[in-house]
Amino acid sequence: MDSLEKQELIVEKPPGKSSANQPDHNLPETCKRTKLFSLFLEPFQWLQMLSSRMNSSFIFGIVLVYGLNQGFSGSFFKVVTDYYWKDVQKVQPSMVQIYIGLYYLPSVLKPVWGLFTDAFPIKGYHRRPYFVVAGVLGFVSALIVAVLGKLPVALALACLIGITAGIAIADVVIDACIARNSIEIRALAPDMQSLCGFCSSAGSLIGYSTSGFFVHHLGPQGALGLLAIPPALLIVLGFLIYETRSTSHRSEKKKAMENIEFTMKGMYKSIRCPQVWKPSLYMYLSLALSISTHEGQFYWYTDPKAGPAFSQEFVGVIYALGSVASMIGVLVYHKTLKDYPFRNLLFFAQLLYGVSGMLDLIFILRWNLALGIPDSFFVIMEQCVSHIISRIRWIPMIVLSTRLCPIGMEGTFFALLMCIDSLGSLTSKWSGGMVLHMLHVTRTSFKNLWLVILIRNILRLATLGLIFLVPKADQADDLIPVDLLRKNSDTNTDGEGLQLVSISDEIA
Protein backbone atom coordinates (compact mmCIF):
# COMPACT_ATOMS: atom_id res chain seq x y z
CA MET A 1 0.00 0.00 0.00
CA ASP A 2 2.79 2.36 0.86
CA SER A 3 4.55 1.55 -2.42
CA LEU A 4 1.32 2.19 -4.33
CA GLU A 5 0.94 5.62 -2.73
CA LYS A 6 4.53 6.43 -3.63
CA GLN A 7 3.87 5.46 -7.26
CA GLU A 8 0.76 7.68 -7.37
CA LEU A 9 2.73 10.55 -5.97
CA ILE A 10 5.34 10.08 -8.65
CA VAL A 11 2.73 9.91 -11.40
CA GLU A 12 0.82 12.94 -10.16
CA LYS A 13 3.98 15.04 -9.88
CA PRO A 14 3.66 17.91 -12.37
CA PRO A 15 5.87 17.55 -15.40
CA GLY A 16 8.98 19.67 -15.29
CA LYS A 17 8.86 19.93 -11.48
CA SER A 18 12.38 19.50 -10.20
CA SER A 19 13.28 17.58 -7.09
CA ALA A 20 14.76 19.30 -4.08
CA ASN A 21 18.26 18.29 -5.15
CA GLN A 22 17.88 19.51 -8.77
CA PRO A 23 17.88 23.18 -9.91
CA ASP A 24 14.75 24.61 -11.56
CA HIS A 25 15.95 25.67 -15.00
CA ASN A 26 12.61 27.43 -15.74
CA LEU A 27 12.98 29.82 -12.81
CA PRO A 28 15.24 32.38 -14.59
CA GLU A 29 12.87 32.47 -17.57
CA THR A 30 9.90 33.03 -15.25
CA CYS A 31 11.75 35.87 -13.52
CA LYS A 32 12.48 37.47 -16.89
CA ARG A 33 8.81 37.33 -17.86
CA THR A 34 7.85 38.86 -14.52
CA LYS A 35 10.38 41.67 -14.95
CA LEU A 36 9.19 42.38 -18.48
CA PHE A 37 5.59 42.48 -17.31
CA SER A 38 6.53 44.82 -14.46
CA LEU A 39 8.40 47.03 -16.91
CA PHE A 40 5.32 47.14 -19.14
CA LEU A 41 3.10 48.12 -16.21
CA GLU A 42 5.48 50.76 -14.86
CA PRO A 43 4.24 53.68 -17.05
CA PHE A 44 0.62 52.93 -16.14
CA GLN A 45 1.49 52.71 -12.45
CA TRP A 46 3.33 56.02 -12.78
CA LEU A 47 0.26 57.67 -14.35
CA GLN A 48 -1.92 56.17 -11.63
CA MET A 49 0.40 57.61 -9.00
CA LEU A 50 0.25 61.08 -10.58
CA SER A 51 -3.53 60.89 -10.84
CA SER A 52 -3.84 59.89 -7.18
CA ARG A 53 -1.53 62.67 -5.98
CA MET A 54 -3.13 65.27 -8.25
CA ASN A 55 -6.47 65.68 -9.97
CA SER A 56 -6.99 63.12 -12.74
CA SER A 57 -8.54 65.79 -14.95
CA PHE A 58 -5.29 67.75 -14.68
CA ILE A 59 -3.41 64.74 -16.06
CA PHE A 60 -5.95 64.41 -18.86
CA GLY A 61 -5.55 68.10 -19.69
CA ILE A 62 -1.78 67.69 -20.02
CA VAL A 63 -2.20 64.74 -22.36
CA LEU A 64 -4.72 66.60 -24.53
CA VAL A 65 -3.04 70.01 -24.70
CA TYR A 66 0.59 68.88 -24.80
CA GLY A 67 0.02 65.71 -26.80
CA LEU A 68 -2.51 66.81 -29.41
CA ASN A 69 -2.48 70.60 -29.43
CA GLN A 70 1.23 71.22 -28.97
CA GLY A 71 2.88 67.95 -29.99
CA PHE A 72 0.86 66.86 -33.03
CA SER A 73 -0.16 70.30 -34.31
CA GLY A 74 3.29 71.79 -33.74
CA SER A 75 5.16 69.02 -35.57
CA PHE A 76 2.67 68.69 -38.42
CA PHE A 77 2.62 72.48 -38.79
CA LYS A 78 6.42 72.63 -38.96
CA VAL A 79 6.83 70.21 -41.86
CA VAL A 80 3.80 71.32 -43.85
CA THR A 81 4.61 75.04 -43.62
CA ASP A 82 8.22 74.38 -44.66
CA TYR A 83 6.92 72.90 -47.91
CA TYR A 84 4.23 75.59 -48.16
CA TRP A 85 6.77 78.41 -48.19
CA LYS A 86 9.19 76.47 -50.42
CA ASP A 87 6.83 75.02 -53.04
CA VAL A 88 3.68 77.19 -52.95
CA GLN A 89 4.96 80.66 -52.04
CA LYS A 90 8.53 80.01 -53.35
CA VAL A 91 10.24 82.13 -50.66
CA GLN A 92 13.98 82.29 -49.99
CA PRO A 93 15.19 80.38 -46.87
CA SER A 94 16.45 83.55 -45.15
CA MET A 95 12.98 85.15 -45.47
CA VAL A 96 11.30 81.96 -44.26
CA GLN A 97 13.42 82.20 -41.12
CA ILE A 98 12.05 85.73 -40.57
CA TYR A 99 8.48 84.51 -41.11
CA ILE A 100 8.98 81.58 -38.75
CA GLY A 101 10.26 84.02 -36.15
CA LEU A 102 6.86 85.74 -36.35
CA TYR A 103 5.22 82.43 -35.40
CA TYR A 104 6.67 83.00 -31.94
CA LEU A 105 4.83 86.30 -31.43
CA PRO A 106 1.77 84.62 -29.83
CA SER A 107 4.14 82.85 -27.44
CA VAL A 108 5.89 86.13 -26.70
CA LEU A 109 2.45 87.49 -25.75
CA LYS A 110 1.81 84.63 -23.31
CA PRO A 111 1.89 87.01 -20.31
CA VAL A 112 -0.97 88.91 -21.94
CA TRP A 113 -2.99 85.71 -22.40
CA GLY A 114 -2.15 84.73 -18.82
CA LEU A 115 -3.25 88.14 -17.55
CA PHE A 116 -6.53 87.86 -19.43
CA THR A 117 -7.29 84.40 -18.07
CA ASP A 118 -6.35 85.42 -14.52
CA ALA A 119 -7.94 88.87 -14.35
CA PHE A 120 -10.76 88.89 -16.92
CA PRO A 121 -13.22 86.05 -16.36
CA ILE A 122 -16.00 85.62 -18.90
CA LYS A 123 -19.39 85.01 -17.28
CA GLY A 124 -17.55 84.14 -14.11
CA TYR A 125 -15.20 81.59 -15.72
CA HIS A 126 -11.43 82.06 -15.93
CA ARG A 127 -10.44 79.01 -18.00
CA ARG A 128 -13.25 77.46 -20.02
CA PRO A 129 -13.93 80.40 -22.38
CA TYR A 130 -10.26 80.71 -23.28
CA PHE A 131 -10.08 77.12 -24.44
CA VAL A 132 -13.01 77.95 -26.74
CA VAL A 133 -11.32 81.16 -27.95
CA ALA A 134 -8.10 79.25 -28.70
CA GLY A 135 -10.02 76.57 -30.59
CA VAL A 136 -12.05 78.99 -32.71
CA LEU A 137 -8.98 81.05 -33.62
CA GLY A 138 -6.96 78.01 -34.71
CA PHE A 139 -9.89 76.38 -36.51
CA VAL A 140 -10.81 79.44 -38.62
CA SER A 141 -7.17 80.25 -39.46
CA ALA A 142 -6.45 76.70 -40.68
CA LEU A 143 -9.57 76.62 -42.86
CA ILE A 144 -8.82 79.97 -44.50
CA VAL A 145 -5.29 79.08 -45.57
CA ALA A 146 -6.38 75.62 -46.76
CA VAL A 147 -9.57 76.49 -48.65
CA LEU A 148 -9.08 79.90 -50.28
CA GLY A 149 -6.33 78.93 -52.71
CA LYS A 150 -2.96 80.67 -52.96
CA LEU A 151 -3.13 83.65 -50.62
CA PRO A 152 -1.04 86.83 -50.59
CA VAL A 153 2.04 86.30 -48.44
CA ALA A 154 0.83 88.73 -45.75
CA LEU A 155 -2.58 87.04 -45.40
CA ALA A 156 -1.07 83.56 -45.42
CA LEU A 157 1.39 84.59 -42.72
CA ALA A 158 -1.45 86.08 -40.64
CA CYS A 159 -3.39 82.79 -40.83
CA LEU A 160 -0.37 80.72 -39.86
CA ILE A 161 0.26 83.04 -36.91
CA GLY A 162 -3.42 82.54 -35.98
CA ILE A 163 -2.82 78.78 -35.77
CA THR A 164 0.16 79.27 -33.46
CA ALA A 165 -1.86 81.76 -31.39
CA GLY A 166 -4.49 79.10 -30.71
CA ILE A 167 -1.76 76.72 -29.56
CA ALA A 168 -0.18 79.38 -27.33
CA ILE A 169 -3.43 80.38 -25.58
CA ALA A 170 -4.31 76.77 -24.77
CA ASP A 171 -0.78 76.24 -23.43
CA VAL A 172 -1.13 79.22 -21.08
CA VAL A 173 -4.27 77.79 -19.47
CA ILE A 174 -2.77 74.37 -18.74
CA ASP A 175 0.64 75.83 -17.78
CA ALA A 176 -0.99 77.79 -14.95
CA CYS A 177 -2.17 74.52 -13.41
CA ILE A 178 1.25 72.92 -13.91
CA ALA A 179 3.04 75.82 -12.22
CA ARG A 180 0.63 75.74 -9.26
CA ASN A 181 0.99 72.00 -8.75
CA SER A 182 4.77 72.24 -9.09
CA ILE A 183 4.83 74.68 -6.20
CA GLU A 184 2.39 72.79 -3.99
CA ILE A 185 3.85 69.32 -4.69
CA ARG A 186 7.53 70.11 -5.28
CA ALA A 187 8.67 66.49 -5.37
CA LEU A 188 6.49 65.81 -8.43
CA ALA A 189 7.58 68.82 -10.49
CA PRO A 190 10.13 66.77 -12.53
CA ASP A 191 7.49 64.05 -13.02
CA MET A 192 5.01 66.59 -14.36
CA GLN A 193 7.55 67.96 -16.81
CA SER A 194 8.47 64.40 -17.81
CA LEU A 195 4.80 63.75 -18.57
CA CYS A 196 4.57 66.98 -20.56
CA GLY A 197 7.72 66.13 -22.49
CA PHE A 198 6.59 62.56 -23.18
CA CYS A 199 3.12 63.63 -24.38
CA SER A 200 4.62 66.36 -26.55
CA SER A 201 7.12 63.92 -28.07
CA ALA A 202 4.46 61.26 -28.66
CA GLY A 203 2.23 63.81 -30.39
CA SER A 204 5.20 65.01 -32.42
CA LEU A 205 5.93 61.43 -33.47
CA ILE A 206 2.43 61.09 -34.92
CA GLY A 207 2.57 64.53 -36.54
CA TYR A 208 5.96 64.06 -38.15
CA SER A 209 5.31 60.50 -39.30
CA THR A 210 2.10 61.50 -41.10
CA SER A 211 3.12 64.93 -42.39
CA GLY A 212 5.20 63.75 -45.36
CA PHE A 213 2.44 61.38 -46.49
CA PHE A 214 -0.23 64.10 -46.44
CA VAL A 215 2.01 66.68 -48.11
CA HIS A 216 2.72 64.20 -50.91
CA HIS A 217 -0.94 63.28 -51.49
CA LEU A 218 -2.78 66.50 -50.59
CA GLY A 219 -0.13 69.10 -51.26
CA PRO A 220 1.13 71.55 -48.61
CA GLN A 221 -1.99 73.70 -48.77
CA GLY A 222 -4.44 70.81 -48.54
CA ALA A 223 -2.49 69.27 -45.67
CA LEU A 224 -2.84 72.50 -43.70
CA GLY A 225 -6.60 71.86 -43.59
CA LEU A 226 -5.99 68.94 -41.24
CA LEU A 227 -4.73 71.41 -38.66
CA ALA A 228 -8.35 72.47 -38.11
CA ILE A 229 -9.04 69.20 -36.23
CA PRO A 230 -7.03 69.80 -33.00
CA PRO A 231 -8.50 73.31 -32.49
CA ALA A 232 -11.98 71.86 -32.95
CA LEU A 233 -11.27 69.45 -30.10
CA LEU A 234 -10.10 72.37 -27.98
CA ILE A 235 -13.56 73.89 -28.41
CA VAL A 236 -15.08 70.65 -27.15
CA LEU A 237 -12.63 70.63 -24.25
CA GLY A 238 -13.76 74.12 -23.27
CA PHE A 239 -17.32 72.85 -22.81
CA LEU A 240 -16.30 69.67 -21.01
CA ILE A 241 -13.97 71.15 -18.42
CA TYR A 242 -15.64 71.88 -15.12
CA GLU A 243 -14.76 75.13 -13.41
CA THR A 244 -16.37 76.70 -10.39
CA ARG A 245 -18.11 79.89 -11.39
CA SER A 246 -17.06 83.00 -9.51
CA THR A 247 -19.70 84.09 -6.98
CA SER A 248 -17.94 87.21 -5.72
CA HIS A 249 -20.27 90.08 -4.79
CA ARG A 250 -17.81 92.61 -6.10
CA SER A 251 -18.21 93.74 -9.66
CA GLU A 252 -16.10 91.77 -12.12
CA LYS A 253 -14.58 94.97 -13.47
CA LYS A 254 -13.42 96.09 -10.02
CA LYS A 255 -12.07 92.64 -9.22
CA ALA A 256 -10.26 92.49 -12.57
CA MET A 257 -8.52 95.81 -11.88
CA GLU A 258 -7.48 94.60 -8.41
CA ASN A 259 -6.14 91.37 -9.92
CA ILE A 260 -4.16 93.30 -12.53
CA GLU A 261 -2.68 95.59 -9.89
CA PHE A 262 -1.74 92.61 -7.72
CA THR A 263 -0.22 90.72 -10.65
CA MET A 264 1.82 93.63 -11.98
CA LYS A 265 3.25 94.45 -8.54
CA GLY A 266 4.02 90.81 -7.85
CA MET A 267 5.72 90.33 -11.23
CA TYR A 268 7.82 93.46 -10.75
CA LYS A 269 8.87 92.40 -7.27
CA SER A 270 9.63 88.83 -8.36
CA ILE A 271 11.62 89.65 -11.47
CA ARG A 272 13.89 91.98 -9.47
CA CYS A 273 15.08 89.08 -7.32
CA PRO A 274 18.54 87.88 -8.40
CA GLN A 275 17.29 84.32 -7.86
CA VAL A 276 14.81 84.99 -10.68
CA TRP A 277 16.40 87.31 -13.22
CA LYS A 278 19.75 85.52 -13.40
CA PRO A 279 18.43 82.08 -14.48
CA SER A 280 15.86 83.82 -16.69
CA LEU A 281 18.69 85.67 -18.45
CA TYR A 282 20.58 82.39 -18.92
CA MET A 283 17.54 80.69 -20.45
CA TYR A 284 17.08 83.55 -22.90
CA LEU A 285 20.74 83.72 -23.94
CA SER A 286 21.14 79.94 -24.24
CA LEU A 287 18.32 79.95 -26.80
CA ALA A 288 19.17 83.21 -28.56
CA LEU A 289 22.87 82.48 -29.06
CA SER A 290 22.13 79.13 -30.71
CA ILE A 291 21.19 80.70 -34.03
CA SER A 292 18.75 78.67 -36.09
CA THR A 293 19.93 77.17 -39.38
CA HIS A 294 16.86 74.99 -39.91
CA GLU A 295 15.55 76.48 -43.15
CA GLY A 296 18.94 76.49 -44.83
CA GLN A 297 19.37 72.85 -43.92
CA PHE A 298 15.81 71.97 -45.00
CA TYR A 299 16.28 73.54 -48.44
CA TRP A 300 19.59 71.69 -48.76
CA TYR A 301 18.05 68.37 -47.65
CA THR A 302 15.47 68.56 -50.45
CA ASP A 303 17.68 70.02 -53.20
CA PRO A 304 18.25 67.50 -56.02
CA LYS A 305 21.65 68.90 -57.02
CA ALA A 306 23.54 70.24 -54.01
CA GLY A 307 21.93 68.08 -51.32
CA PRO A 308 20.81 64.49 -50.81
CA ALA A 309 17.33 65.20 -52.30
CA PHE A 310 15.31 63.57 -49.53
CA SER A 311 11.68 62.86 -50.42
CA GLN A 312 8.71 64.36 -48.59
CA GLU A 313 7.93 61.06 -46.89
CA PHE A 314 11.52 60.58 -45.77
CA VAL A 315 11.68 64.09 -44.31
CA GLY A 316 8.65 63.16 -42.20
CA VAL A 317 10.36 59.93 -41.16
CA ILE A 318 13.50 61.84 -40.10
CA TYR A 319 11.49 64.14 -37.84
CA ALA A 320 9.39 61.25 -36.55
CA LEU A 321 12.47 59.34 -35.45
CA GLY A 322 13.66 62.55 -33.84
CA SER A 323 10.46 62.53 -31.77
CA VAL A 324 11.16 58.96 -30.68
CA ALA A 325 14.61 60.14 -29.64
CA SER A 326 13.00 62.99 -27.68
CA MET A 327 10.94 60.45 -25.74
CA ILE A 328 14.16 58.55 -25.00
CA GLY A 329 15.62 61.81 -23.76
CA VAL A 330 12.63 62.24 -21.44
CA LEU A 331 13.12 58.73 -20.08
CA VAL A 332 16.86 59.32 -19.56
CA TYR A 333 16.12 62.50 -17.64
CA HIS A 334 13.31 60.94 -15.60
CA LYS A 335 15.28 57.83 -14.66
CA THR A 336 18.77 59.20 -14.05
CA LEU A 337 19.01 63.00 -14.10
CA LYS A 338 16.11 64.54 -12.20
CA ASP A 339 18.01 64.54 -8.89
CA TYR A 340 21.08 66.42 -10.15
CA PRO A 341 21.62 70.12 -9.31
CA PHE A 342 20.51 72.58 -11.97
CA ARG A 343 23.93 74.04 -12.73
CA ASN A 344 25.76 70.73 -13.14
CA LEU A 345 23.04 69.25 -15.32
CA LEU A 346 22.67 72.29 -17.59
CA PHE A 347 26.46 72.67 -17.97
CA PHE A 348 26.99 69.16 -19.33
CA ALA A 349 23.76 69.30 -21.38
CA GLN A 350 24.92 72.53 -23.07
CA LEU A 351 28.38 71.07 -23.65
CA LEU A 352 26.90 68.02 -25.38
CA TYR A 353 24.53 70.30 -27.30
CA GLY A 354 27.43 72.22 -28.78
CA VAL A 355 29.50 69.12 -29.58
CA SER A 356 26.57 67.28 -31.19
CA GLY A 357 26.07 70.23 -33.55
CA MET A 358 29.30 69.20 -35.27
CA LEU A 359 27.40 66.26 -36.76
CA ASP A 360 25.50 68.77 -38.94
CA LEU A 361 28.83 70.15 -40.13
CA ILE A 362 30.07 66.67 -41.05
CA PHE A 363 26.87 66.03 -42.99
CA ILE A 364 26.88 69.35 -44.91
CA LEU A 365 30.52 68.81 -45.93
CA ARG A 366 29.61 65.23 -46.95
CA TRP A 367 32.42 63.74 -44.86
CA ASN A 368 30.01 60.95 -43.99
CA LEU A 369 30.29 59.67 -47.58
CA ALA A 370 34.07 59.66 -47.30
CA LEU A 371 33.64 57.49 -44.21
CA GLY A 372 31.29 55.17 -46.11
CA ILE A 373 28.15 56.19 -44.16
CA PRO A 374 25.03 56.68 -46.35
CA ASP A 375 23.18 59.99 -46.13
CA SER A 376 19.93 58.44 -44.92
CA PHE A 377 21.59 56.56 -42.06
CA PHE A 378 23.76 59.50 -41.01
CA VAL A 379 20.92 62.04 -40.91
CA ILE A 380 18.78 59.69 -38.81
CA MET A 381 21.67 59.14 -36.40
CA GLU A 382 22.30 62.89 -36.20
CA GLN A 383 18.63 63.66 -35.55
CA CYS A 384 18.37 61.05 -32.80
CA VAL A 385 21.48 62.28 -31.00
CA SER A 386 20.52 65.95 -31.22
CA HIS A 387 16.92 65.36 -30.08
CA ILE A 388 17.96 63.29 -27.05
CA ILE A 389 20.40 65.98 -25.95
CA SER A 390 17.95 68.81 -26.69
CA ARG A 391 15.27 67.20 -24.54
CA ILE A 392 17.69 66.57 -21.67
CA ARG A 393 18.72 70.24 -21.94
CA TRP A 394 15.17 71.58 -22.20
CA ILE A 395 13.34 69.81 -19.35
CA PRO A 396 15.57 71.14 -16.53
CA MET A 397 15.00 74.68 -17.81
CA ILE A 398 11.23 74.17 -17.64
CA VAL A 399 11.51 72.71 -14.13
CA LEU A 400 13.65 75.71 -13.22
CA SER A 401 10.95 78.02 -14.58
CA THR A 402 8.29 76.42 -12.36
CA ARG A 403 10.58 76.96 -9.37
CA LEU A 404 10.67 80.70 -10.06
CA CYS A 405 6.88 81.24 -9.92
CA PRO A 406 5.38 82.87 -6.81
CA ILE A 407 2.13 81.39 -5.50
CA GLY A 408 -0.93 83.45 -6.33
CA MET A 409 0.30 84.61 -9.75
CA GLU A 410 1.93 81.45 -11.05
CA GLY A 411 -0.13 81.41 -14.24
CA THR A 412 0.89 84.86 -15.44
CA PHE A 413 4.47 84.61 -14.16
CA PHE A 414 5.06 81.22 -15.76
CA ALA A 415 3.68 82.71 -18.98
CA LEU A 416 6.21 85.54 -18.57
CA LEU A 417 9.05 83.04 -18.28
CA MET A 418 7.78 81.17 -21.33
CA CYS A 419 7.62 84.53 -23.10
CA ILE A 420 11.33 84.99 -22.35
CA ASP A 421 12.02 81.56 -23.85
CA SER A 422 9.94 82.44 -26.91
CA LEU A 423 11.88 85.69 -27.31
CA GLY A 424 15.05 83.60 -27.24
CA SER A 425 13.69 81.32 -29.97
CA LEU A 426 12.52 84.33 -32.02
CA THR A 427 15.98 85.92 -31.70
CA SER A 428 17.51 82.61 -32.75
CA LYS A 429 15.35 82.42 -35.89
CA TRP A 430 15.87 86.03 -36.94
CA SER A 431 19.61 86.09 -36.27
CA GLY A 432 19.94 82.79 -38.13
CA GLY A 433 17.99 84.25 -41.05
CA MET A 434 20.27 87.28 -41.14
CA VAL A 435 23.40 85.12 -41.10
CA LEU A 436 21.99 82.98 -43.93
CA HIS A 437 21.27 86.15 -45.90
CA MET A 438 24.69 87.70 -45.21
CA LEU A 439 26.50 84.53 -46.30
CA HIS A 440 24.30 84.23 -49.42
CA VAL A 441 22.60 80.93 -48.65
CA THR A 442 19.58 80.86 -51.01
CA ARG A 443 17.12 78.40 -52.52
CA THR A 444 19.79 77.10 -54.88
CA SER A 445 23.15 78.23 -53.40
CA PHE A 446 24.50 76.42 -50.33
CA LYS A 447 28.23 77.10 -50.69
CA ASN A 448 28.51 78.84 -47.31
CA LEU A 449 25.97 76.76 -45.37
CA TRP A 450 28.79 74.92 -43.59
CA LEU A 451 30.13 78.26 -42.30
CA VAL A 452 26.71 79.21 -40.89
CA ILE A 453 26.56 75.91 -38.98
CA LEU A 454 30.12 76.36 -37.69
CA ILE A 455 29.22 79.81 -36.33
CA ARG A 456 26.14 78.32 -34.66
CA ASN A 457 28.19 75.60 -32.95
CA ILE A 458 30.79 78.07 -31.66
CA LEU A 459 28.03 80.20 -30.14
CA ARG A 460 26.53 77.13 -28.46
CA LEU A 461 29.84 76.35 -26.78
CA ALA A 462 30.35 80.01 -25.85
CA THR A 463 27.11 79.84 -23.83
CA LEU A 464 28.97 77.69 -21.28
CA GLY A 465 30.58 80.91 -20.02
CA LEU A 466 27.16 82.02 -18.72
CA ILE A 467 26.50 78.96 -16.58
CA PHE A 468 27.25 80.95 -13.41
CA LEU A 469 23.78 82.53 -13.82
CA VAL A 470 22.15 79.16 -13.04
CA PRO A 471 21.64 78.32 -9.34
CA LYS A 472 23.49 75.39 -7.78
CA ALA A 473 20.31 74.26 -6.03
CA ASP A 474 18.71 70.86 -6.43
CA GLN A 475 15.60 70.54 -8.58
CA ALA A 476 13.31 70.13 -5.55
CA ASP A 477 14.58 73.21 -3.67
CA ASP A 478 12.81 76.55 -3.27
CA LEU A 479 14.63 79.21 -5.28
CA ILE A 480 12.78 82.41 -4.39
CA PRO A 481 12.36 84.02 -0.96
CA VAL A 482 9.82 82.30 1.23
CA ASP A 483 8.27 85.60 2.36
CA LEU A 484 7.56 86.49 -1.27
CA LEU A 485 5.75 83.18 -1.76
CA ARG A 486 3.72 83.63 1.42
CA LYS A 487 2.73 87.22 0.70
CA ASN A 488 1.49 86.49 -2.79
CA SER A 489 -0.30 83.37 -1.59
CA ASP A 490 -2.14 85.33 1.09
CA THR A 491 -3.09 88.08 -1.33
CA ASN A 492 -4.73 85.90 -3.93
CA THR A 493 -6.91 83.04 -2.84
CA ASP A 494 -8.38 82.01 -6.17
CA GLY A 495 -7.91 78.34 -6.92
CA GLU A 496 -6.39 76.92 -10.05
CA GLY A 497 -8.03 73.53 -9.96
CA LEU A 498 -9.74 72.28 -13.07
CA GLN A 499 -11.91 69.20 -13.12
CA LEU A 500 -13.75 67.42 -15.87
CA VAL A 501 -17.47 67.01 -15.72
CA SER A 502 -19.52 64.66 -17.84
CA ILE A 503 -22.01 66.08 -20.31
CA SER A 504 -24.89 64.75 -18.25
CA ASP A 505 -23.56 66.50 -15.14
CA GLU A 506 -23.12 69.70 -17.13
CA ILE A 507 -26.73 69.59 -18.36
CA ALA A 508 -27.96 68.89 -14.82
Please outline the helices and strands:
Blueprint lengths: L1 H11 L14 H27 L2 H33 L4 H11 L1 H4 L1 H10 L8 H20 L5 H32 L4 H36 L4 H12 E2 L9 H20 L2 H15 L5 H8 L10 H26 L4 H15 L1 H7 L2 H4 L4 H29 L6 H29 L10 H14 L19 H10 L7 E2 L2 H5 L1
Helix pairs in contact: 2-3, 3-8, 3-9, 4-13, 4-19, 6-8, 6-19, 7-8, 7-9, 7-10, 8-19, 9-14, 9-18, 12-19, 14-18, 15-18, 15-20, 16-20
Protein name: Folate-biopterin transporter like
Instruction: Give the overall shape, derived from the CA principal axes.
Output: globular
- Number of helix segments? 22
Structural class assignment: mainly alpha
Q: Summarize the helix and strand pattern as letters.
A: HHHHHHHHHHEHHHHHHHHHHHEH
What low-confidence regions span 5 or more consecutive residues with pLDDT below 50? 1-20, 487-508
- The counted number of beta strands is 2
In terms of DSSP E residues, the strand content is under 5%
End-to-end distance: 76 Å
- Helical residue percent band: over 70%
Protein name: Folate-biopterin transporter like
Describe this structure in words.
The protein is an all-alpha fold and 508 residues long. Helices cover 74% and strands 1% of the residues. It contains 22 helices and two strands. The protein has helices at 2-12, 27-53, 56-88, 93-103, 105-108, 110-119, 128-147, 153-184, 189-224, 229-240, 252-271, 274-288, 294-301, 312-337, 342-356, 358-364, 367-370, 375-403, 410-438, 449-462, 482-491, 503-507, and strands spanning 241-242, 499-500. Strands 1-2 form a two-stranded antiparallel ribbon. Helix 2 packs across helix 3 (56-88), helix 3 runs antiparallel to helix 8 (153-184) and helix 15 packs antiparallel against helix 20 (449-462). It is globular. This is Folate-biopterin transporter like.
